[in-house]
Amino acid sequence: MKVGIEPDYIIGDFDSLGEIEQSEKVIRFKVEKDDTDTALAIKHGIAKGFKLFYIFGATGGRLDHTIANIQCLVNLSRNSMRGYLISENQITTAITNDEISFDEKHSGNVSVFAYGSSAKGVYEKGLKYKLENAVVYDDVPLGVSNMFIGKNSSIKVTEGTLVAVWDRI
Predict the structure, then answer these.
(1) Which of 6, 98, 164, 168 is in the most buried spot, having the most CB atoms within 10 Å?
(2) Kind of pairing between the strands at 82-86 and 52-56
(3) Per-residue pLDDT at 1
(4) b vs e for 82-119, b when ≥16 Cβ sit within 10 Å of the residue's Cβ?
(5) Residue 116 clears pLDDT 70, i.e. is over it
(6) What mean pLDDT is predicted for residues 123-135?
C-alpha cells in the first residue's frame, strides 16, 4: 500500500504481522497448516482464474520461505502458468519447456539453475556468454552470472525446468 498498490485480497495466517483489520478482502488461515501463505495466495488466484502472478516481498528474511516460494514458481511453471518473485534488486521466475525473452534495455546479471536433476536443451542467446543445447545440472552452477549486453536476449529450455534470476532495471 505504501507504493500505491491496492491488494485485491490479503491472505495468510498473519502470525508475523499480528492483528489485521477484518474485511471482505482479508482471508485468514490457521497458523497450523500444510501450505505457506504465499502458496495459499497462489491457490486462491488460480481458483479465480489467474495464470500470471507477481509476488512482492517474498525473498527476504527466511531462506526456507524463499526456497518454498521458488518451489511455488516451479509448480506454476510446470502447470503452464508463470510467477515472478520481485525483490528490491532482482526478479526470479521458473520456466519449464519454455522460453523467456528480454529486450535490449535489460542490464546487469542473469543466472539460471536447473530445478530437478537436469535441464536439457538450454539456450542463452544475446547474452555475454552463449549456451547452445546445453545440459544444466542441479549440482553444477554452470548458469550463474551471465550478463545482459544491450541486445534482445532469451533463455530457453526444451526439456526440464530452469529457475532464472536477473537484476531489476
Answers:
(1) 164
(2) parallel
(3) 65
(4) bbbbbbeebbbbbbbbbebebeeebeeebbbbbbeebb
(5) yes
(6) 97
pLDDT, one tens digit per residue, over 1-56 is: 677 877 888 888 777 776 777 777 888 777 787 788 899 999 999 999 999 999 98
Distance (Å, rounded) from C-alpha 165 to C-alpha 7? 25
User: 3-state SS string over the chain?
Assistant: CCCCCCCCCEEECCCCCCCCCCCCCEEECCCCCCCCHHHHHHHHHHHCCCCEEEEECCCCCCHHHHHHHHHHHHHHHHCCCEEEEECCCEEEEEEECCEEEECCCCCCEEEEEECCCEEEEEEEECECCCEEEEEEECCCCCCCCEEECCCCEEEEEEECEEEEEEECC
- d(Cα 121, Cα 157) in Å, to the nearest integer? 5
> How crowded is the C-beta side of 54, counted as CA atoms within 13 Å?
6
| Those residues with Cβ within 8 angstroms of residue 70's Cβ, 6 or more apart along the chain or in another chain | 85, 92, 94, 115, 163
**Which residues have CB under 8 Å from 145's CB, separation 6+?**
109, 111
Threshold 0.70, pTM exceeds: yes
Are the beta carbons of 162 and 98 closer than 8 angstroms? no
